[in-house]
Amino acid sequence: MSRTAYASHRRSRWLVSSLLLLGLMVGTLAQAQSGAVAFMAPVTEVVSNPYGLRSVWAQGDWVARSTLLLLAFMSLLSWYFIIAKWLSQRQLDAQLQAANSSFTRDETLQQRSEAMGAQSPFRSMVMSALAARRRHASLAGQVDLGNWLSQDIVHSVSSLQMRSQEGLSILATVGSTAPFVGLFGTVWGIYNALVTIGVSGQASIDKVAGPVGEALIMTALGLAVAVPAVLAYNALVRRNRVTLHAVKSFSSELHTQLLIEVDRQQSMAATRREA
To answer: Would the pTM of this model clear 0.85, i.e. be above it?
Structure first.
C-alpha cells in the first residue's frame, strides 16, 4: 500500500469514528433531557372528595337529608322575600315621588290624585280622605273636621305601614332558627360518628371523617342560610323606617291641603251668597 492510500484510509476511519461518537453523544443527551423533563414534570392525580355535600346526601340517613331539605327550603324562602320586598320598596319610593310631585300643581286634590296612578297607595289615601270629608257633612258638626280627617289619614298610613312589613317576620324567623337547624345537623353528625366508633371499636380517621365532615357541613349551611336573612332584614327594616317617615310627611301635607281646600270652598260659597 502506498503512503497516499494509507493516509486516505486513516482519514476515512477517523471520519467514521467521529460520526459514530457524535451520534452516540446526541442520543445520550436526548435521553438525559427526556429523563430530566420526566423528573421535573409534576404528577397530577385527580382525587375526588369523598366527604363533600354529594356524599352527605348519598350516605346520609333520612334525618340528615331532611335537615338538608329544610335548610334549602329556608334559603329559597328567605331569598324570595328579600327580592320581593326590595322590589316592593323600590316601587313604593317611586309612587311616593310621583305623589309629592303631583302636590306641586295648582289643581284640586281630585285632579292631583288622578295623576298618581291607579295602583298607587297614595291615590287611595287621597281618595279616602276626600270621601271622609264628604261624610263629615252628615255628622252635623259633632266632630271637628280636622280631627275627622286626621283619623282617616292615620288609618290609611297604618294600613300602608302594615303592608310594608309583610314578609319581614319570615326573614327574622329564618335568621334566628337556621343556625339551630344547622346545629341539629351537627349534633346528629357527631352522634353518627360516635356510633361508628362504638361499632368498629377503633377511632381511626377513616371511620369518623365522614360523620364529622357531615356535621361541619351542616354547621356551615346553617350559617350560610342565616347570615343573608339577618343582613337583609336589618337593611329592609331601616329602608322601611325611612320610607314611612316620608309617608307621614306626605300625610301631614295632605291634611293641610284638605283643610285649605275646604276653607277655600267655604269662602267661595260665602262670596256667592253675599253676591
So the answer is: no
